[in-house]
Amino acid sequence: MSSIREVAKLAQVSPATVSRVINGTANVDEEKKKRVLDAISETGFVPNEVARSLFKKSAKIIGLILPSIENPFFTQMANAVERTADKYGYRLILCNTNDKPEREKTAISMLASMNADGIILTTNNEETYESVNSCPIPVVITDRRIAAKALAGYVHSDHYEGGRIAAKHLIDCGCKNIVCIRGPVEVSSARARYEGYCKVCHEQNIKQQVVDCTYDFEKGLEVTETILSKYPDVDGIIACNDVVAISVYKVLNSKGIRVPEDVQIIGYDNIRLSKLVTPEVTTIAQPIDEIGQKAAELIINNDIDNNEKEFIFETKLIVRDTTKLKGE
Amino acid sequence: MSSIREVAKLAQVSPATVSRVINGTANVDEEKKKRVLDAISETGFVPNEVARSLFKKSAKIIGLILPSIENPFFTQMANAVERTADKYGYRLILCNTNDKPEREKTAISMLASMNADGIILTTNNEETYESVNSCPIPVVITDRRIAAKALAGYVHSDHYEGGRIAAKHLIDCGCKNIVCIRGPVEVSSARARYEGYCKVCHEQNIKQQVVDCTYDFEKGLEVTETILSKYPDVDGIIACNDVVAISVYKVLNSKGIRVPEDVQIIGYDNIRLSKLVTPEVTTIAQPIDEIGQKAAELIINNDIDNNEKEFIFETKLIVRDTTKLKGE
Questions:
Q1: Which of A284, B57, B84, B100 has its Cα between 20 and 30 A from that of B116?
Q2: Can you give the residue ranges of every domain in chain B?
Q3: Is A103 helix (H, G, I), strand (E, B) or coil?
Q4: Do A93 and B98 touch (CB under 8 A)?
Q5: Cis preceding linkage at B279, omega within 30
Q6: Separation of alpha carbons B65 and B50, rounded Å
Q7: Strand ranges (DSSP E) for B18-162?
Q8: Residue A259: its chain B contacts at CB < 8 A?
Q9: Per the CATH hierarchy, to which homologous superfamily does domain A4-55 belong?
Q10: Taking a C-beta distance cutoff of 8 angstroms, is the pair A167, A192 a contact?
Q11: How far is it, in rounded angstroms, from Cα A180 to Cα A266?
Q12: Is the CB of B96 less than 8 angstroms away from the CB of A79?
């Protein structure tokens, strides 16, 4: 297929003029217009969505591509993105991928062809990186870090520090046998939290004990059984997120293991649910709303240049009912 | 602005041929193509998104407009829609409205202009009905019923029967002072459930006691305090959904009121969370996956005619830890 540039060359006009004729975005001199249409006819050029979009004005659309809409962390972040979008008159289009690269790629190309103003994406699927690299509209990565180039920016929490704070808190609570439930190893934020935990173990000269998990309830139930059989002396559990912390509590409670007296639990994220369940979950808070807002603002303010911008937010310990400080 | 028909007339071709030239969807004889492009030039016709879409083939897109992505009922339904869409090679575009009519209207018009194959919508905002009536693509309404015409179909549970089953179960559990937490009165499904409860009260000659609520945790906490002060003898609570049932438990537990010994609680929906929290919540199950699947299939199979189709699914009692049958 011939390009808009070939049409422009043949018609002896600029590519922008070709675009104006195609999109009708501005008046074009009749004689030039005729030349463009003749050239289109001659070259067989078909204006596709992407070509059209390159020249159009802002569509006032933000695309948000989420790995899971059943994970409250992401739906809370989505709400924050939406509030910000709404404030500036932008629309939000949500795409859920269930972490599948094919869906991520389809969503990226669809949003690009719609001429969205930018995409907010959370992924660690390497197969998707090429689509990110070649995406004609700005891409902001939230929560994770990826090995892709030409990004508009990163917005995430300091997960390494979050992992450190969680481990230190359990030690402050008197735990001597801590097990870390690690999120998926391909997920950069899960690795960073785990590394934070390891650092504390090293500093405090305590054993590293780890089990692998995903971010959903059911897997959390399963993994807790594993912990109890593999590490029967466990007295502290760092869950990979709040949802899994709730699962851990469920299993312990069903076996008559008291929380926090026998085993202490700390979650991660500070989703709303964490303080609404009984008992309320001690957790490492991510500033979920700020992350969503910042990501949206990067796109809306077109605050994008060739330097990848990275915005790192602090995490914070929130002590609730599933842990208890020594001596309290 | 001139129309595609004027262009067709001038070029002495059919409007479909004009469309083929614009969209490049099929080969057009060079001589005809030239005539079309000349006619476009002469008339000043600009193919806009909507005009383009009228002639395009299926975009293989389903639009899902949700009132809240923080309500697990809707995200579980969205996942079911997506699984079905995926199976048939359709993409899903999600729009979250926070129940705001302006957002619903914008989402409807955006999806229509994208030439989506259909829209799945849950709303009871009267201001939105006109947009539904005039929507050029099929609209399927889930969960609720609305006073709009020309719908492609309704897919929902039998909420009236659900309300009846909930009330009858609490009576079977020995409750004599039941309070019904009613969802928003503008929501047809909330009203139907409440009417089911009222019917049982009437049949059994027991007092109707009601408090109003929305579908979120925080409001559930507040409303439980109201119940305890207004109806101190309460021994059974019908929550408007599972999320609110979890809030009710939280407040009762914090005051030393035992569940189910002192007060029994039944939720609604059977979201995954309801069996993952401690204690597990007795509830009225909606077949959430089937609802999402059916709604998607109506659009995908283009199973749409002028008769509004209504698909009503049965609800089912799931007894868990927050209620206890008499004598057990």
A1: B100
A2: 4-55, 61-158+288-314, 159-286
A3: helix
A4: no
A5: yes
A6: 20
A7: 61-66, 91-96, 118-121, 139-142, 153-157
A8: none
A9: lambda repressor-like DNA-binding domains (1.10.260.40)
A10: no
A11: 10
A12: yes
Contact B276 A250 (CB under 8 A): yes
Q: Collect all residues with Cβ–Cβ distance below 8 Å to A224 and sequence separation of at least 6.
A: A237, A247, A248, A250, A251, A252
Residue among A101, A323, A98 at smallest CA distance from A214? A98
Q: Can you tell me the distance from the alpha carbon of B276 to that of B279, in angstroms, rounded to the nearest whole number?
A: 8
Residue B230's Cβ-count burial label (10 Å; 0-12, 13-18, 19+) is: exposed
Q: Do domains B61-158+288-314 and B159-286 have the same CATH topology?
A: yes
Q: Which of residues 272-301 of B touch A (CB under 8 A)?
A: 272-273, 276-278
Tens-level pLDDT at each residue, chain B (328 residues): 457 788 888 889 988 888 777 766 667 888 888 888 788 767 766 555 434 443 445 678 999 999 999 999 999 999 999 999 999 989 999 999 999 999 999 999 888 877 789 999 999 999 999 899 888 889 999 999 887 776 788 999 999 999 999 999 999 999 999 999 999 999 999 999 999 999 999 999 999 999 999 999 999 999 999 999 999 999 999 999 999 999 999 999 999 999 999 999 999 999 999 999 999 999 999 999 999 999 999 999 876 655 568 899 999 999 999 999 988 7
Q: Does B210 touch chain A (CB under 8 A)?
A: no
ipTM of the complex: 0.80
Separation between Cα atoms, residue B242 and residue B179, nearest integer Å? 15
B157 in A contact zone (CB under 8 Å): no
User: Is the separation of the CB atoms in B62 and B296 below 8 Å?
Assistant: yes
Taking CA–CA distances from B35, the nearest residue in chain A reads A41
A274 neighbourhood in chain B, CB within 8 Å? none
Residue B213: CB partners within 8 Å, gap ≥ 6? B181, B182, B183, B219, B220, B223, B240, B244
Query: What's the CA gap between A269 and A105, in Å, rounded?
Result: 27
User: What is the DSSP code string of B177-215?
Assistant: SEEEEE--TTSHHHHHHHHHHHHHHHHHT----EEE--S
Give A124-145 pLDDT, tens digit per residue: 999 999 899 888 889 999 999 8
User: Which residues neighbour B6 within 8 Å (Cβ) at sequence distance 6 or greater?
Assistant: B43, B45
Q: What share of chain B is helix, strand, coil (3-state, %, to 5)?
A: 45, 15, 40
- How far CA B61 is from CA of A313, B64, B92, B209, in Å, comes to 36, 10, 6, 45
Q: Which pair of tokens denotes residue A110?
A: 């669809």
Cα torsion B66, B153, B317, B220 to 10°: value is 30
Residue B61 corresponds to which tokens in the numbers above? 């897109």
- Could you give phi then psi for residue B31, rounded to 5 degrees? -70, -40
Rounded to two decimals, what is the model's pTM? 0.82
Q: Which CATH number does B159-286 carry? A: 3.40.50.2300
CATH architecture assigned to B61-158+288-314: 3-Layer(aba) Sandwich (3.40)
- The pair phi, psi for residue A264, each rounded to 5°, is -105, 150
The dihedral formed by the CA atoms of A132, A133, A139 and A142, expressed in degrees to the nearest 10:
70
Give chain A's length.
328
3 state DSSP class of A280: coil
B56 and A CB contact within 8 Å? no
Handedness of CA B199, B200, B201, B204 (dihedral sign): positive
